[in-house]
Amino acid sequence: MMIKNLNINFNFKLYIMQKILLIVIAIIIFGCGKGSAQAELKKKTIAKKAIKSDRPKNAVKAPDFTLADLSGDPVTLKDLEGSVVLLTFWGTWCGPCRREIPDFIKLYDKYNTDGLEIVGITLTSGPPDAIQRFVDRYGINYTVLTDIQEHETQMATADYGRATGQRISGIPTTFIIDREGYIVKRYVGPRPEHIFYQDLKPYL
């Protein structure tokens, strides 16, 4: 009789221990899964906040344009959708614009693979072949645009002045346009490479 009771007690204790073990395992699995899901949600929330906070409150949509590259092919801003665009209004005759060119070349070399496009809208600088000779002499490696017929670059200049509420009255005038097509920064006058990169970095 005593042996039978001992067997019953042992089986009962074993049953209780198995139940406890199952509960502990369930808590561990549930807890880990919950923690992982919470971590993912937190990560996504932080990422969304970072994207929103990077863009200034006064950011405006960049006007589209259709201009010609130096081969005569049409190029629009929409063609560059999804890239971070450093858009500069410049001229081959402009001394401060020339000083910026080596910095643009370095930026393009370093960050084009990260999604950076640099576009120079060339103002009153002669026909495409004259601009091409200038581009070759300076080793410009980024996109240079000019008029299709006569006044398209002037129209683009006016459009960007209106969009930002500040007329473009001097060059170089340069804009950073984020991946969603918003103007997030404007510069009047030349800047060195490290200043451009500092402002580009949050969007790359």
Task: Supply the CATH architecture of the largest domain.
Answer: 3-Layer(aba) Sandwich
Strand content: 15-25%
Number of beta strands: 8
CA-CA gap between termini = 80 Å
Spatial extent as radius of gyration = 30 Å
Low-confidence stretches: 1-8, 24-53
SSE order, as H and E? HEEEEHEHEHEEH
The CATH superfamily of the largest domain is identified as Glutaredoxin
* Helix percentage: 40-55%
For the largest beta-sheet, the strand count, sense and barrel status come to: 8 strands, mixed
**Mean pLDDT reading:** 84
Q: Give the C-level CATH assignment of the largest domain.
A: Alpha Beta
SS element count, helices: 5
Apparent shape: globular
Q: And the CATH topology of the largest domain?
A: Glutaredoxin
Count of structural domains: 2
Please, what is the oligomeric state?
Answer: single chain
> Which structural category fits the helices and strands?
alpha+beta
Major sheet strand order: 1-8-7-4-5-6-2-3
Q: What features would you describe in this structure?
A:
- It contains five helices and eight strands, in the order αββββαβαβαββα.
- It has helices spanning 2-54, 95-111, 128-138, 152-164, 193-200, and strands at 60-61, 66-69, 74-76, 84-90, 116-122, 143-146, 173-177, 182-188.
- Helix content is 50%, strand content 19%.
- It has two domains: 1-54; 60-203, Glutaredoxin (3-Layer(aba) Sandwich), CATH 3.40.30.
- The relative contact order is 0.16.
- Strands 1-8-7-4-5-6-2-3 form an eight-stranded mixed beta sheet, with helices on both faces.
- The protein is α+β, with helices and mostly antiparallel strands and 204 residues long.
- Strand 2 (66-69) and strand 3 (74-76) form a beta hairpin.
